[in-house]
What does this fold into?
Amino acid sequence: MRTKKTAALTTLAALVAAGLGGAGPAAAADGGMLPHPGPDGLVWVEEFRGDGGVASGGAWDSLPTVLTVACDGGGDVRVTMDSKGTIVAAFDVKCPVSGGAGVGSASMAAGVVRPGDFTIVVDASAQTTRWSLTVTQPE
It folds into this structure.
């Protein structure tokens, strides 16, 4: 059941990210910076450029939550996660021009992310900054 729910939410999240960013996802020859999160994943945005975000409805409050963002292309991204009207994570990630991706993460104990919906906003310093994100709830 959880796998089917996760797959549906991942698809929804990717569609929402495309709508919030003002432009469709840009496909790169080398693929996304973060691998698919597997069965613990709630959201996976393989690759996006510029400002964007995600909305999901599948969080459980009985599990810890990990938000990870990777980026490259110069500048930085500001990441904010909101759960039921409360900011539960906020961090910046420096995005190197070359030599790999910058990575930032927030780990939240069970109960910090409330059951149900959450949103994540990624505010990029440049529309050419490339980023990827995952949200997982490891069992």
Notes: The chain has one helix and eight strands. The radius of gyration is 14 Å. The mean pLDDT is 83.
